[in-house]
Predict the structure.
Amino acid sequence: MNHVELDKQYCWHPFTPQSEWTALEYEPIMIESGDGVWLRDAEGKTYIDGNSSIWTNIHGHSHPYLNKAIAAQLEKIAHSSYLGFGHPLASELAAKLVSFFPETDLQRVFFSDNGSTAVECAMKMALQYRLQNAEPERTEFVAFVNGYHGDTLGAASLGGVEAFFARFRKFGLTVHFVRDLVELRELPDLDKIAGVVIEPLVQGVNQMHVWRDGMLAELRAWTSEQRIHLILDEVMTGFGRTGTMFACQQEGVVPDFLCLAKGLTGGYMPMAATLVTEEIYNGFLGGAERAFYYGHSYTANPLGCAAALASLEIFEQENTLVGVEEKATYLAYKLSHLANESKHVKEVRRCGLIAGVELHTDLAGMGGEVCVAARKYQLLTRPILNTIVLMPPLSIKRDEIDMMVAAVEQAIRDVL
Ligand SMILES: Cc1ncc(COP(=O)(O)O)c(C=O)c1O
């Protein structure tokens, strides 16, 4: 059997109707290598990685500095347990992460493996903190309609996308879903709420819905007033995508919990971090029964830490954030041109180098067809409903932005 046959015989893909995937006539693309923003498939065709390999890649594929850092760590050790032991790079990485929040209380880092676990452990910490400190009756959460925070059962109970999560509601925690701050303020029994969870500035899975300016700062002020913890899920928005290292910095907001994953390692290794305030951390001190009994075998994996430190160094070496600002302005210009020229574009939503191009059509499945058509023009990305996601690695160059937007334009013309 070749690789595709093996895949169809033995593999099960995420978020994928497998009967369509395994149909005889379906030919999945098998990615074999990558370089910069480019991906190469098994047949040698190249494509721009238009969604940064599901929102993970930051500095491009096969970045020599990142490759070297991982290889250097591999020469020492690939993995050792963080349960009962430490290792130098995890210490350095934790110090580096909290250094983005100087003179604040957000000074403690708990490592895990992916975006879902970053959120999952924030939730468990938020609950346990209440149970063993003040206000144990605060056991419920608030999340936003159409928000997405991952697929483990706890994180999934915060998920506001009905198509994914409705069937699991009865198995999860008590979560109240609100559309905005008006609905949030009107919720009854606020004294039962442990925390509010939000994707700051942009809700990714909600077709790149951009929150209004000032919303996050207002939410922070309100949660502080109500003694409710603010959990920011920056799994997608973190590490420069919105133009600042973290989205919350744009509104001067410091959360009680900050969940990071995807871009943490430059998109090279699965790793996550949940940053928490010293106040919360202190609520777990004072005896074994107060400890946080949570962890994963690969917590603080040394290869992941090496990648994350190297990625943060590249931000400085390559002045990445200054570049993002210029590229985001250019992308905005290109996309506004696309929206003006094409009657098939309903709306373009954008924040930094995160963009969604919503098609003007009532027909379901058009987003998918446009993305398939874009492959002919060397762009790989995925839609969310009828919104085409454009979220390239931050290292994308101007001529590659031109190619990416032209591919979407051509594909829309072909399909609609
Ligand atoms: C905002 C947000 N939170 C959490 C997650 C879950 O991350 P992971 O897929 O690494 O579990 C995602 C994934 O897309 C996300 O966009």
Observations:
- Residues 55, 114-116, 119, 148-150, 199, 204, 233, 235-236, 261-262 surround pyridoxal-5'-phosphate (CB under 6 Å).
